[in-house]
Design a protein that fits this description.
Elements lengths: L1 E2 L2 E2 L4 H8 L10 E6 L1 H7 L2 H8 L7 H10 L3 E4 L2 E5 H7 L15 E5 L7 E6 L8 H11 L2 E6 L2 E6 L3 H14 L10 E4 L3 E7 L18 H9 L8 H12 L6 E5 L2 E7 L9 H17 L6 H8 L6 H13 L3 E3 L12 E3 L3
Parallel strand pairs: 6-10
Antiparallel strand pairs: 1-2, 3-5, 4-5, 6-7, 8-9, 10-11, 11-13, 12-13, 14-15
Helix pairs in contact: 6-7, 7-9, 10-12, 11-12
Length: 350
């Protein structure tokens, strides 16, 4: 396709839109057909559905079915019902009762160390994304390694990574996965020092723009997840993950794309001294981008605050800024001139 004055290769998503133009969206196609009203209430978690919508559950079965039809989760044809894939994926009591969706259930793997050599637990989720979301998050949190820290005279146990980070990256993986990628599911891998989450499909927003950019691959799925209270349609999820890393003094999360999958790596506690150059540059860029989307600017002082460095270590912060400029990820705000005292920085795309 043409991009400016050049011809560039189309992405898989762009090609798919062309070749499948006019065909039904994968999520809107039938999962199970010829179901009775009784089948619907047995297959879908109706009570949880109305709890998530914060609505009273209708007293009659016809009222329940009308609500499901109004949200285009099921269709009626001559007294029989069809459950759309999106309805089953969100509300299924058991995904394995939907043969075409069983492989879309998230999988959690827990390893004993920092590598894949020894697996301690391997569990596949059984419920729909919406009705099982909170249980999935609590299950993941229950598997995370725990560290003890001492604050004054109080000993306190903390998890490897904060729950807000887990909630946001799981919600993002659900919403932005590519359902057209067969034989692939959301994967949550827990190691001794990090959590790696990956979902099928390459991102449709460049990795360096996850903080400020937003484009949903599955718009209606994102809309329903927002109605259920699991996400926001304004690209704030990744902001929260990065902000949590700064608040808890964790290494910056790492975003990657490879082999038709998108990866997010959330690290456990690591001291500044043990962070390598890549860790520090990644944190500097994310801090700068986060400041920009918050209508603020990164300075030497704000970066020192991010790493909890004293004022006497401003030279170290300056070196990190220089390294990040050299990678092309940030730039000096030229509006403040050449003053080193008032220097502030912008992400490369600002």
């Amino acid at each position: 396709m043409r991009s400016g004055q050049r011809l560039v290769h189309m992405s898989e998503d762009q090609l798919r839109k062309i070749f499948f133009e006019g065909r039904p969206d994968w999520l809107e196609e039938p999962s199970l057909t010829n179901q009775s009203p009784q089948d619907i209430v047995e297959l879908l978690d109706i009570q949880r559905y109305f709890e998530l919508l914060r609505l009273p559950q209708p007293a009659t079965r016809s009222g329940i079915l009308d609500r499901l039809k109004s949200n285009f989760l099921v269709d009626e044809n001559g007294g029989e019902y069809t459950i759309r894939r999106i309805g089953a994926l969100l509300l299924a009591k058991r995904l394995d009762r939907f043969p075409d969706l069983e492989l879309k259930a998230p999988r959690v793997i827990v390893y004993s160390g920092k590598s894949k050599l020894e697996t301690r637990l391997d569990q596949i989720g059984g419920m729909g994304y919406a009705v099982g979301f909170d249980k999935l998050i609590q299950f993941i949190m229950g598997q995370l390694p725990q560290n003890e820290i001492i604050e004054g005279t109080i000993r306190r146990a903390i998890k490897l990574v904060p729950e807000v980070s887990i909630r946001e990256i799981v919600a993002n993986a659900i919403i932005h996965q590519d359902f057209a990628v067969g034989g692939s599911r959301i994967l949550i891998e827990i190691y001794e020092d990090r959590v790696e989450l990956s979902n099928p499909g390459l991102p449709i927003v460049p990795i360096d723009r996850f903080i400020d950019g937003y484009q949903s691959r599955n718009e209606r799925l994102a809309s329903l997840m927002r109605k259920f209270g699991f996400c926001e349609e304004k690209s704030s999820g990744i902001d929260k993950v990065i902000h949590a890393a700064e608040v808890f003094q964790l290494p910056a999360p790492d975003f990657r794309a490879d082999l038709n999958r998108t990866y997010v790596i959330i690290f456990g506690i690591k001291s500044f001294e043990n962070m390598d150059r890549n860790d520090r540059v990644r944190a500097c860029y994310q801090h700068c981008a986060l400041k920009w989307v918050m209508k603020d600017f990164m300075t030497n002082q704000t970066l020192r605050n991010r790493f909890k460095l004293s004022e006497g270590k401003s030279a170290i912060a300056s070196q990190i800024i220089t390294n990040t400029i050299d990678t092309g990820l940030i730039k000096l705000d030229e509006r403040v001139g050449d003053s080193r005292k008032f220097a502030r920085y912008l992400p490369f795309w600002a």
